[in-house]
Amino acid sequence: MPRAWRGAVVLVGVLLAGPAALAAPFTFDDVVAQARDRAAKPYSAPREIPEFMQKLSYNEFRSIRFDAEQSLWRDAGARFEVQLIPAGAYYRRPVKINLVDASGAKPLPFRKDYFVSDNDALARRLPANLGFAGFKLTFPLNRRSVREPVLTFAGASYFRGVGKGNVLGLAARGLAIDTGLMSGEEFPQFVEYWLERPARQAEAMRFYALLDSKRVTGAYQFSVYPGAPTRVDVTAVLFVRDRIELFGAAPLTSMFYYGENTARPVGHWRPEVHASDGLLIQNGTGEWLWNPLLNPKALHVQAFGVNGVKGFGLLQRDTRFDSYQDGETRHDRQPSAWLTPRGDWGRGRIMLIEIPSRDAGNDNVVAFWSPPGPVTAGQRFDLDYRISFGGPEVDHNAPARAINTFVGRGEPLNGEGGGRAYRVVVDFAGDALDKLGPDTLPTADVSAQEGGEVIEQFLTYLEDAKRWRLSILARPAEGKPLALRSALSADGKPVTETWTYTLPEPNTIFGDKE
Fold it and tell me: How many CA atoms lie within 13 A of 243 on its CB side?
């Protein structure tokens, strides 16, 4: 893989971290050296916490709270602070945390008195050497006097970020290995962190992480810029220990239970339940592609070929409260995540993996970049990219968009068709359409893949809603998914992103049983 502007990212981080970082004898190169050394040795799994701590219920684990008065760097009045997360429940393998300043890197010992709990019996049983699961990076994001989490690292290589006005939603990961394969997924873990002490009025912060698993090691540098959106610049150097069939770089993970394009499960009162509603890709050619998400009956894997991908992300485009009616979870305020590679990543695939889920408690959607084929032992990958956590406008350079996708049983308006057909309705809106002259009408190019058939299509303008509505009646080939693709154009040029949708068989539209 071509090297992706690693030096430039490191330089930016140094300039923003302040004088203390310039003098620090501990640098990202030290983490890279540790990752390289580990890759040359057999994998050794981290220790696990005592069994009774692993068996804590959700509420029991939540009762163990970090004492915010002991936040790291609070005594210095820094804008950035760190709150610690204890190991326990699903966080079974503790991680090491180090603090970095001008004098070097020093381990942060675990202390029980970092945490408080209303459960006195549990508090007494906490092991003195329990360890940390991770940390929350806090910053005055929405109100000048109130620090709140902008980035949370805990569990495997997961981290969740928010921009101004957001609540926690989807997650990013350091790496995905064999996700969706029958052989089973391997979950690499960030096993150690180094947090650089920020200057008092710093607007950005930098830290490092060491990743380890059976088949790969890695060094990561994160530079965080809170705001609208919150930006996270990532530099990663990865060393492959053993062959990996599906190498997932820069993965994003989210939840889609049901939405406007699916049937609502029986008995559920909320109109929609999802943390993201679509995958957006900008290919190296400049084409924008939007693929609405779904909750399949069986594992659903799609691969979108890309060359020099300019960006991809899982977005929550629908930010209307009325779409969810959930005053607690606030899906309408959950962030989108847009990933921008730095440098040319060459040929590869954006993989979209959708996993069946019976409830909203599972992150059942994964998207990542992957090289064209397997990777082998001894390979090194250098990755540089930016993740923007915020509203759906993180893809602000996209053309007019597909803002709604509705799917139902097909009823031909011209009396033809029949069989197992689907009515698919797509709404397009955006500046490129609004700017068309009164004598310029867009046209829709609709195609069906996998042997499917487009029975009818028509495009109308909805004056009150200020959008163009494309209605499609289509039928899949026997035993094949319904695979459709469309975009609007004017004067022979595209004025919208390309909408693509694959509905596997069986599905919820016809009430199919599993």
Answer: 3
